[in-house]
Design goal:
The protein is α/β, with parallel strands linked by helices and 290 residues long. It has one domain: P-loop containing nucleotide triphosphate hydrolases (Rossmann fold). Bound molecules: adenosine-5'-triphosphate (ATP) and magnesium ion. Magnesium ion binds next to helix 1.
Length: 290
């Protein structure tokens, strides 16, 4: 049964979609079967994965949530073997309103996923920048939440609210939900602020902060306009290397029984893209202790 991981942060533009697409692609490159569910009406995870949303009357996640079609019906393959997408589109905006009258409106994604989950090793859900009904559906369907955090001013603003929401969902709707971890994105090693944010977040969340930091890399922002994950756009870029490392850490932390083959398969040493300090190393060696 595939593990379901929601990629969430109600703050906008922190790297949720970039992480969802490129982590999914990197896991697929490691021969895992991955389904990426786009739960944002912006449809960035869909177009950034090369899915054409222009087709008239094409069904997408919105129609699945309303019960008009099955999830299996809307799954689309991508250019990369092992990587499939459930697309979204602007119709999805309506679900926040139309969904209000539906029975178990926050459990609809979970219910739909159960019908296909066994076909995949991992299901990643790209959440919109809000804590509304769509994100709630993702949190009800997931066993882990991965929180991308941009290394910028006010990075931790709103994080308390997100943690509270995760705790509430765990208590009332989905007892198996856990915080899978926090991933620092758009890290600039030459910028003091990035280091300050990393230190502050690590002080609060300790081992829950993942060791792999995603650097700011222009290739990561260019790739979506070509409808490609970074691996297919520029595999040698620091951004691509960082997401391969992230997939490696993902497998160690969230699927330890499965082992990690990302780097082994590529015949490389298991090096991380950004150098890490002693504190990070300790945190990394104790992923299950918090
Ligand atoms: N590591 C990075 N280096 C450079 N640019 C990045 C990086 N990560 C993301 N970006 C760019 O920053 C912008 C925001 O990223 P992204 O869309 O992934 O964030 P998001 O959290 O999904 O946003 P939203 O909240 O609107 O859904 C995009 O233009 C993206 O290309
Ligand atoms: Mg997004």
């Amino acid at each position: 049964m595939g593990k379901v991981i929601a990629i969430a942060n109600q703050k906008g533009g922190v790297g949720k979609t970039t992480t969802a697409i490129n982590l999914a692609a990197s896991l697929a490159a490691a021969e895992r079967r991955v389904l990426l569910v786009d739960m944002d009406a912006q449809g960035n995870a869909s177009t950034g994965s090369g899915i054409d949303l222009s087709g008239e009357g094409e069904k997408q996640i919105y129609h699945v949530l309303l019960g008009e079609t099955s999830l299996a019906n809307v799954i689309r393959p991508t250019e990369l073997a092992g990587f499939w997408v459930v697309p979204s589109g602007s119709d999805l905006i309506g679900y926040e309103v139309e969904g209000i009258d539906l029975e178990k409106r926050e459990q609809r994604l979970a219910r739909a996923l159960r019908t296909v989950q066994e076909r995949y090793d991992f299901v990643l859900i790209d959440c919109p920048p809000s804590l509304g009904l769509l994100t709630l559906n993702a949190l009800c369907a997931a066993e882990s939440v991965l929180v991308p955090l941009q290394c910028e001013y006010y990075a931790m603003e709103g994080l308390g609210h997100l943690m509270q929401t995760i705790e509430l969902v765990r208590q009332r709707l989905n007892p198996s939900l856990q915080l899978g971890g926090i991933v620092l994105t758009m890290f600039d090693r030459r910028n003091n602020l990035s280091h300050q944010v990393a230190a502050e977040v690590t002080q609060h969340f300790a081992a829950r902060v993942w060791v792999t930091r995603i650097p700011r890399n222009v290739k990561l922002s260019e790739a979506p306009s070509f409808g490609k994950p970074i691996l297919l756009y520029d595999i040698r870029s620091p951004g691509a290397q960082a997401y391969l490392s992230l997939a490696d850490e993902f497998l160690r932390r969230l699927a330890p029984g499965q082992g990690s083959r990302v780097r082994e398969e590529r015949g490389e040493e298991n090096e991380r893209t950004e150098s890490v300090g002693q504190g990070d190393r300790l945190a990394y060696s104790q992923p299950g202790t918090d």
